[in-house]
Amino acid sequence: MMSTTTTDLTRGDFTLPGEAGYEQLTLRLAKKWGADTIRDSDGTQLSPEIVQAGYDIYSTVCLVRSVQPWARENRDKLQQNFLMSYPVVAEKATTAITLLKGYFTEQFVVNFKDNPKRWWQVFDRATGKEVPARKWSANEKKGIVTVTDTEPGHSYTVNFLVFRIWEEISMYNHLTNDWGDREHLAAVDPMHPETQQVLLAFLEKWLREHPDTKVVRFTSMFYNFSWFWGADRATLRDVYSDWGDYEMTVSPRALKLFEKRYGYRLTSEDFVNGGLYNSTHNAPSRRYRDYMEFIHDFVIEFGRKCIDLVHQHEKKAYVFYDDHWIGVEPSSGRFGEFGFDGLIKCVFNAFEVRLCAHSKGVETHELRLHPYLFPTGLKGEPTFKDGGNPTLDAKNFWIDARRGIVRAPIDRIGLGGYLSLVEPFPDFQDYIEQLAKEFRLLKSFHASDRPWTAPFKVAVLTAWGDLRAWTCSGHFTPGVELYDVLESLAGLPLDVQFISFDDVVKAGVPRGVKVIVNCGRAGTAWSGGHYWSDPRVEATLTEWVRKGGALVGIGEPSALSQPGRNFRLAQVLGLDRDRGERIANGKYNYVAPAKNARGVEGVTEHFITADVAGALDFAKDVDGIFVLGGDTQVLAERAGEKSPKLATHAFGKGRSVYFSGFKVSHENTRLLHRAIVWAAAQESGWSVWSSSNVKTEATVFPKAGKLVVINNAGTDEETVVTLGDGKTTKRVKLEAHGIAILEV
Amino acid sequence: MMSTTTTDLTRGDFTLPGEAGYEQLTLRLAKKWGADTIRDSDGTQLSPEIVQAGYDIYSTVCLVRSVQPWARENRDKLQQNFLMSYPVVAEKATTAITLLKGYFTEQFVVNFKDNPKRWWQVFDRATGKEVPARKWSANEKKGIVTVTDTEPGHSYTVNFLVFRIWEEISMYNHLTNDWGDREHLAAVDPMHPETQQVLLAFLEKWLREHPDTKVVRFTSMFYNFSWFWGADRATLRDVYSDWGDYEMTVSPRALKLFEKRYGYRLTSEDFVNGGLYNSTHNAPSRRYRDYMEFIHDFVIEFGRKCIDLVHQHEKKAYVFYDDHWIGVEPSSGRFGEFGFDGLIKCVFNAFEVRLCAHSKGVETHELRLHPYLFPTGLKGEPTFKDGGNPTLDAKNFWIDARRGIVRAPIDRIGLGGYLSLVEPFPDFQDYIEQLAKEFRLLKSFHASDRPWTAPFKVAVLTAWGDLRAWTCSGHFTPGVELYDVLESLAGLPLDVQFISFDDVVKAGVPRGVKVIVNCGRAGTAWSGGHYWSDPRVEATLTEWVRKGGALVGIGEPSALSQPGRNFRLAQVLGLDRDRGERIANGKYNYVAPAKNARGVEGVTEHFITADVAGALDFAKDVDGIFVLGGDTQVLAERAGEKSPKLATHAFGKGRSVYFSGFKVSHENTRLLHRAIVWAAAQESGWSVWSSSNVKTEATVFPKAGKLVVINNAGTDEETVVTLGDGKTTKRVKLEAHGIAILEV
Predict the structure, then answer these.
(1) Is A2 part of the contact surface with chain B (CB cutoff 8 Å)?
(2) A362-416, pLDDT tens digit by residue?
(3) Smallest CA–CA distance from A578 into chain B, residue
(4) Fewest C-beta in 10 Å: which of A228, B96, B543, B646?
(5) Is the CB of A8 inside 8 Å of chain B's CB atoms?
(6) B390 CB contacts (<8 Å, ≥6 apart)?
């Protein structure tokens, strides 16, 4: 049921991918879906018929791969990075290491031009020590480094600079789509003033040549996320791949400028890190954080020049929040300095909707929805072809994205890909029409209102803090608990913020925050890793909970091993983890969970478990948890093991809840929600604007007087929603993937 | 079938526990079982009727708890240890810590006599730093330490000295058997010269008062294994319990003598170690190893005086390898200096048989078999009472112990407990008669012969090396893989030795060793922990395998994390472990195991897996294993995960095999055996003296010309044994728990 509204739900805020050769279809669907903007996809040029139909035109440009002839002639201006050679075990006193062995030589060429002795490093990994430069030599012809005085049985590696001769996104598309002998595009490095001039000249020309374009969409700015390919794509294509790592920004020029600015010199090992590089998932070093700041500064500085040019041509500048987004940092406090008009995020999940909405300093937040109009999906499954069911796909993606859209304002939506593919799927065409109306309705609620949230704030504590709010490192990755937690949080009526350890040290826990979530495995940026070595973090948070704060710890919260202790907040959590060193230490024999009110074995009845209807499933959770004493209440434990899965602890005036892991599901989202509310000691307010069925969620827009009830499942559902008085209930029936709007 | 033999199988080498009041039974069973020795159990005094029946008499004495009135009068001569108080979170600038909170105050009394400021330490566990002595004070009356200038939110602990007022073995028996107001016995500390005098005087008197005693069995020497009890036995009885830790030997006098001898001062934290103490399972520090040496030296020195006294009285001195065995170290090269005549080990498992047999410097190796003649077993299950089946228990214990007895010479066996309990179990009486004959037969084979072993040596590499050969830390503990491995090895036709990392650094891999087994979790003494930080270990072993050696790595072999590498022998193993830091690093896509020749899914056909008949079960094994390249062959992987369970790798001229875990079973013992033989590149000799049925094992005594085939199962089994030519086979039928002797 869709309530009546005065908003025009049939038109606007929708970007449609035009397709040359399908002019009629393009215009028909633009009308049906209420599009106001038509974009050209990568490699397609819109025909005049479309361009002149009165729609805003939106064109993509990827600057760093736009100047191919110049790139071919200026190979020393191509982008670079450090690579670590695969380890070689010395057999004699002289050891030769083939630098690119194991790497994709269509992507990488060793940079012998910049003095290897200055920029490279050789390591003896058995001792962990650098080999002095006089003990090795580089041979350009053979592509090897020869190390002398090597110790037999020790492993040696070389950190070396490479130019990248094939830009990764075009490489991926080229090889995935078998583009044969089509040109390999290379990305130039704007760190060089010459490159900047060339790019600005290109952009100036391009802007002049695209008079009909209203919106220039950058894909994105200059540096792609890190993606190192292996020699054999069948067995190891992605040697290293991280959506947030700055590896691919490195060059001798950048390092020299860094040294000048920061007063100290970075080494290759600051980037290589034994082959782990600077994965966003691992707690970042201080030196690397400085380097990120340096690059962010540069990207803003030169990016601003490009955007100014766009504005001079009276066009708008949008940026795609992916691909070459490194250094753009839409969550940074400085993002506004770019002057972008819009930010576009392609989304699979609710947390990505929140990620997009979270960015300040930009007027328009636009989502690119899935499925893309491609014959197959990302895993090769059929979409717009025989065997595919794109309508069902669209519904399933939509119910995930919608949870985020209900909670946070999004300005526009759109699709990507080849529009012609939808022609044989009229039900898909109808569904997108309906979806677009649903979006416009939800947007209208946000226009002058904010959805109700519980009367306390929640902070997610990670090493990255707000810089990586509402994501970990790109799209959802199974096995990283925080993604699951974010996906749950993204649709809950909670006011969530993201804080870092540095924030805590600097200013304590922000005012209004009642619950801190710390979720992740030991050593990760999410749990915090070495950031817990600062005792001020432990002291501040311990004191804060004792005085009435609350901690929800998931996985290995506050983990940083020291003798006898693995969780720095063990005293707060009332438990710790045995990583194998406590075989001789006895474990407190806690009261085993029995059966909850719904007859679920192994689950203690509690406010938190009140909706638990089956065994808890946290996927691969943490084992070896032991409680410190009788005041830790274990609500559930691992099957067949005396290791809590879910436990609560009172600490001073505060509370904590521990989860041994997390996996997003309707049931677990509810469990997390209840845990947070319990930790905040706000159980009495639980029923306000609640929905009984865990597959459904209720959101109230108080000023508008609208209660939005969504069905997050692909089955028809019924639920009882409770109104703002916490008492009055209404029964609501929802179709599969459906929505209901109640006037309240 | 039992072959004919000229040995008298009916008499000798058997120790029977006599029981006063059951003289007739004692003498009847002594005859039936062929006992040559009758012992008094703890607390029972044999009647003259038994003593004078012509059997050797064997009496137990526990010196350190033998002088109770003196102990009560000399409380400062009781044994001591350090305890760590439970952490207290500071709320203000002054923090009081109740020292014994959480500990069993019938076991411990705080030692305020020796200056706390000299011996104790207070730690701020948030910073990891010691609190200066001027910032805390001890209050004897209140039993607290008050710390000043404490930081709110930091956790503080106190390491303090305690006297132990109740000796742990008597405490355990007292409380387990509800002995009510029977006296609490305390253990005196022979570190004091006065105590030594008192003990020697007691022993002298005792020896005079036991003219009929032929063998004095010490239980054991002076210091019990570490066992700290908690305040509430229902929830946490064993706060800390380790069979091999020297915690309970500490005293100010010992520490002063240590400092004098070693030239440096040990601190309380060397013992407390953040509450982990010095568990045998964790890689020991160098300082603690020095301290062990110091105590071993002392125990030998004073022990020798006691034994000399026994010899002066023309009695023999045996020592029980348990209880107060700390400092005795029967695997030490110095054990012979004690001058003991016999060593007695109670055994549940084959590895304990090997442990006993392994000890040099003693003439007689005696086993105490299970079940003990008690109404209930260790876990409270019925044995010699209604519902029990002691005969079946005895058979099941015997088939485990027998595997070890077949492989290594044992001189005597015996039982313990209350003989009267066997009266209602005539089948048990008959079975022990048969078992004793079986033992004597096997002993006769060892008399002038050694069982055949494969023509290469195997070394188990741990931090402890030979000092902890054939055990980890006491009886079998599930979850510590090395116990399982030892139990498998204990019955295999392999020449096994135990080496330490220090051995490897000092002298390389011993000559003749072809296979090294390194098994355990990261940080444990078994895997090696910090001992892997010496690059010589990595270099020596890597070179050794490259030149033709072999490594069998189990669990987390060679684990010591550094950036990008967790296993120091990753290059040798062809694999490493991702502990969560490699989310962004791609993993080599190895060829998945398919199906072996017996149709087992997920198991690659290979020499190693040739007897695998079902899915591999290694209990809680290690996940996150990734292979380094295509030359690592994965034979089995974890269910539903791309993480190898079993893999092989060729490295230079050598080989390696990796197991993700291990659990003793007939199938896995065979798998380990095959893996070792394959690693040694000795597949061609596999069939020599082999037995086809994995539940059976064959052992040949070449000189005696006897092939012993044992059935390790409780079911009738049939097997095909292959003789020494590797071709001729014989079919053998074995009863449940049975044995067959073939003339060959």
Answers:
(1) no
(2) 999 999 999 999 998 878 889 999 999 999 999 999 999 999 999 999 999 999 9
(3) B276
(4) B96
(5) no
(6) B371, B383, B384, B422, B425, B428
Is residue B323 annotated as a catalytic residue, yes or no? yes
> Alpha carbon of A656 to those of A451, A574, A634, B563: distances in Å?
27, 8, 12, 33
Give residue-wise pLDDT tens across range A663-717.
999 999 999 999 999 999 999 999 999 999 999 999 999 999 999 999 999 999 9
Q: What would be the CATH architecture of the domain defined by B696-743?
A: Sandwich (2.60)
Distance from the A31 Cα atom to the nearest Cα atom in chain B, whole angstroms: 43
CB-CB under 8 Å, B126 with A539: yes
Please give the pLDDT value at position B503: 98
Q: Which residues 115-174 of B have a C-beta within 8 angstroms of A?
A: 124-128, 151-155
A92: nearest CA partner in chain B: B543
pLDDT of residue A2: 44
Q: Which residues on B lie below 8 Å from A542 (Cβ)?
A: 89, 152-154
Lowest pLDDT segment from A179-188, A224-233, A343-352, B36-45: B36-45
User: In this predicted model, what pLDDT tens digit does every residue of A542-551 receive, in sequence order?
Assistant: 999 999 999 9
CB within 8 Å: A153 and B84: no
User: Which residue out of B323, B341, B466, B576 is catalytically annotated?
Assistant: B323
Q: How many CB atoms lie within 10 A of CB A141?
A: 6
Q: Does B92 touch chain A (CB under 8 A)?
A: no
- CA dihedral sign of residues A563, A567, A573, A579: negative
| CATH code for the part of the protein at B14-67+188-222+295-447 | 3.20.20.80
Q: Mean pLDDT over all residues of chain A?
A: 96
Instruction: Give the SS3 label for residue A182.
Output: coil
Q: Domain-by-domain residue ranges, chain A?
A: 14-67+191-222+300-446, 457-683, 696-743
pLDDT band per the 50, 70, 90 thresholds, residue A1: very low
Which one of the listed residues A270, A322, A323, A466 is annotated catalytic?
A323
- Nearest Cα residue in chain A from B280: A584
Cβ A282–B581 below 8 Å, yes or no?
yes
Distances (CA, A) of A709 to A701, A705, A723, B383: 11, 13, 12, 64
Q: Which residues of chain B have pLDDT under 50?
A: 1-4
User: The complex's ipTM?
Assistant: 0.95
A676's enclosing H/E stretch is helix A666-679
pLDDT at A718 over 90: yes
- Is B696-743 the same fold as B77-170? yes
DSSP designation for B724: T
Binning pLDDT at 50, 70 and 90, where does residue A3 land? very low
Decide if domain A457-683 falls under CATH 3.40.50.880. Answer: yes
**Interchain pair B245, A153: CB under 8 A:** no
- B77-170 maps to which CATH number? 2.60.40.10
| Residue in B91, B234, B583 closest to A546 by CB | B91
Contacts of A535 in chain B (CB under 8 A): 124, 126-127, 151, 154
Q: Which fold is adopted by the domain A14-67+191-222+300-446?
A: TIM Barrel (3.20.20)
CATH class of B457-684: alpha beta
Q: What is the pLDDT of residue A44?
A: 66
The residue-averaged pLDDT of A55-70 equals: 94
- Can the peptide bond before residue B451 be classed as cis, meaning omega within 30 degrees of 0? no
The radius of gyration of chain B's CA atoms, rounded to the nearest angstrom, is 27
B contact test, residue of A83, A89, A532 with most B CBs within 10 A? A89
pLDDT at A43: 59
Which residue among A91, A564, A583 places its CB closest to the CB of B273? A564
Q: Are B338 and B307 in contact (CB under 8 A)?
A: yes
Helix (H) or strand (E) holding B730: strand B729-734
